[in-house]
Amino acid sequence: MVRKLIEIALHNRFIVLLISACLFGWGVYSVQHNPVDAIPDLSENQVIVFTEWMGRSPQVIEDQVTFPLVSNLQGVPKVKNIRGASMFGMSFVYVIFEDNVDIYWARTRVLERLNYAQRLLPQGVTPTLGPDGTGVGHIFWYTLEAKQMDLGEQRALQDWYVKFALQTVPGIAEVASFGGFEKQYQLVVDPVKLQYYKVSLMDVMNKVKANNNDVGGRKFEMSDMAYIIRGLGYVKSKEDLESIGVGNYNGIPVRVKDIATVQMGGDLRLGIFDENGEGEVVGGIVVMRYGENADRVIKAVKAKMKDVEKGLPEGVKFHTAYDRSVLIEEAIQSVKGTLIEVLITVSIVVILFLFHWRSALIILIQLPISVAVSFILLQAFGLSSNIMSLTGIALAIGYVVDDGIVMVENAYRHIADEQLKRKPNV
């Protein structure tokens, strides 16, 4: 069989060269479109359901949130396993699907079941799906360098400007904020004044919630003109909150400022984010969407950050805390360097030992074609170009070179022997 293939190849050199050229072109196309990442994605095919119910103990979360969700998600098709985790104020349910299931089909099926399971949960508790990323989706971390701004202002800048801008980059599943304080209005209520004015704490909560709202009215016509009536009630400052009425005492309105102190503060934190022991910082984690090209997404994020940086306040700039593209580029350069070194070494060795440039050319042609075919197979099987696959290609280059040298030297020797036999004796 092998002998027959060799004979066919020798008698059809043009077709062999044409097939080789097509394979090389296909390989170049596969290299350009194959996802590039630093590490292989070995995470399970899963959908995460996150539910928040702050202030409740893990046991209450387990009984009233995690258990109902796990029970109702058991019937989702093609599910391999379901895992639940309960902690203070939060519940996580991991729905593990079979490996051949499309991730977006799986998310749709889980979302359908959540619509049914919603009525089994406590009032005001809403489960949400996690981002459509993987366990290795954290491709880029950044922090804000803003020494003149406090942590609350930095977190507001991150949440309401930087985060929304970076989420528009194609291939980004989520930009998770970390560090700093989430700014909020805080009412410090005096219980003695509540008792004096005969106002309950629930009345204060309901009144503040009801007055922080916009309402719409009907159309009002005057002098052949129509005006739309609107009630503007959103709170814009501490003074607005202090002026909200919460009751009356002997016909005199009782306002928030009469029974409480309004202040601007930060939400409760469960930890801090420190960078290199130099103090707290604010930043974000860029999570890549499932199946995207990590190197291409990181480049797009960096380009977007340059545009976003133009709109930042004076003295504020980005600082890269983690960039996976550095590892990706070094892995690619390693393979390229190995390929070039092998080509040069093989050429020198073959020319020195055989003194035949055509034999060296044969080996130089087969190396790029072999690497190109490797990327064709990676693309066909849906595998990314990562450290593992690129290292395998780099190691395989050595075997390809060894086989090529042995075969060329063997063929050269046989041809030389035949020529000696045909030469007439003197």
Could you explain how this protein is built, in words?
By secondary structure, the protein is α+β, with helices and mostly antiparallel strands. It folds into three domains: 2-38 and 328-422, Multidrug efflux transporter AcrB transmembrane fold (Up-down Bundle), CATH 1.20.1640; 44-133, Alpha-Beta Plaits (2-Layer Sandwich), CATH 3.30.70; 183-266, Multidrug efflux transporter AcrB TolC docking domain, DN and DC subdomains (2-Layer Sandwich), CATH 3.30.2090. The chain is 50% helix and 22% strand. The protein has helices at 2-11, 13-33, 58-72, 103-117, 151-166, 191-197, 201-211, 238-242, 256-259, 294-309, 324-354, 357-380, 387-422; strands spanning 46-52, 79-87, 90-97, 128-129, 138-145, 172-178, 183-189, 215-222, 225-231, 245-249, 252-255, 260-266, 283-288, 317-323. The strands form five sheets. It has a four-stranded antiparallel beta sheet, covered by helices on one side.
List keywords for this structure.
elongated, Multidrug efflux transporter AcrB transmembrane fold, Alpha-Beta Plaits, alpha+beta, 4-stranded antiparallel beta sheet, 13 helices, Multidrug efflux transporter AcrB TolC docking domain, DN and DC subdomains, 3 domains
The total tally of domains equals: 3
Query: In terms of quaternary structure, what is this?
Result: single chain
Major sheet summary line: 4 strands, antiparallel
What's the CATH architecture of the largest domain? Up-down Bundle
* Helix coverage percent: 40-55%
Count the E strands.
Answer: 14
